[in-house]
Amino acid sequence: MLRRVQCLLRLHSNGRQALASRLRCYSTDEGNPKQNQNSNPNPRAQKPGTKNLPAVRNPFAAAQDRTKDTYLTMVDIFQERDVHRRNHVEFIYAALKNMADFGVERDLEVYKALINVMPKGKFIPTNLFQAEFMHYPKQQQCIIDLLEQMEDFGVMPDHEMEAMLLNVFGRQGHPLRKYWRMMYWMPKFKNLSPWPLPDPVPDDTLEMAKLALERMCTVDLRSKITVFETSELKDAIDQTWIVSGMSPEQEKLLREHSRQKALYIEGPFHIWLRNRRINYFTLRADPDPQFLSQLDERQLDEDDVSHIEVPFFGRAPPRRHNQVGKLRSVHQQDDGTILAICATGTSTKDSLLSWIRLLEANGNRSIGEVPVLFRFTSEVPAKAQEIEGGASVPATSDNRSSSQYEQQSSKRE
Question: What is the pLDDT of residues 108-129, one digit of tens each?
Fold first, then answer.
């Protein structure tokens, strides 16, 4: 009997102590509003029933010296600040977002430094269910997004990155599978283009214009790229360079062009070389319906591979219907004839007028007897707007008459 009474008293005393401790906690948290306000300076941001999460500050947005060394220094500071590396996912996303500001979006070393931020060994799945159901999905998706950004910028990983992903997520991790797919496809497409570009591409706009016109002029292997300076002309207004592309076939078409039909300078059109945009113009003539109607409809298309006849097993070789008769040049299209293309340093009407005069002075005398009109498909900068990279600056067109060249050509005559 005495033993039962002692047990009841002990339980009663424990219950009183627990109740007193709960009351003390309640009084310190909610009974003293001043102390609660000091602990949380923003009571609206804290909802009832939620935990006090530490605020994540973006150190990249407040950096003044935005270089690669500064970027890597901030990554090293984050690694040495905390052993557990809390908020590492948020830090990696903030680092990916601010890569372009530091100019390291195409640097493989920086991406490997961000992968090294992840803790090692903790996210490795230990069984089949964890591997297939994406063990630690937030962390795995973060590194997958990092690899996606690498793929978008054309950064090909190396074997060291494979070892880093293997130490973080294991062989069954989804980021390692993404890495294997990238290593299969990216080397196939890296050197697949028939117009290879230097890596990185040059910053000089003149060199970029040469590369752009060389790429477009590969349609005719006899095309010649010529660089003119407007300073060669006496009364040129714009002092700039002009890159012109023209083939002997186009010179022949220009000589045979009717003097009563006008030529048109059209543009600017755009061609992209990686992240650089180049403006170019074309010298075009209207299509010749009489010539197009005389073409034999039975001519074989050299680029058509749908009906290939192989002259094997006793079969006669296919008869070529376009061996005799008039042939269409590659420059003669259904919508017009392309006679020349060019890119100028200012993309103005004055520079294009100088281009026509330079063509006339360099072996194309017939162009001075033909009226040349400007036909712009979009607005052109008025003055001193150089060919820039990825910048999309709204252009403005000047108000000079499109028949300016006609007036000057009539004065020369």
Answer: 999 999 999 999 988 999 998 9
Residue tagged 């130490």 (tokens): 167
Three-class secondary structure assignment of 271-315 = EEECCEEEEEEEEEECCCHHHHHCCCCCCCCCCCCCCCCCCCCCC
Two structure tokens written together for 70 = 């500064």
Q: What is the pTM of this model?
A: 0.66
Tens of pLDDT, residue by residue over 67-91, are 999 999 999 999 888 777 888 999 9
Whether residue 117 contacts residue 92, with contact meaning beta carbons closer than 8 Å, is answered with yes
Where in the chain are the domains? 2-31+54-190, 205-294+327-405
Q: CA 311 to CA 64: how far, in whole Å?
A: 71
254 and 366 in contact (C-beta within 8 Å)? Answer: yes
Q: What is the pLDDT of residues 290-323, one digit of tens each?
A: 787 777 555 556 667 776 666 666 666 666 555 5
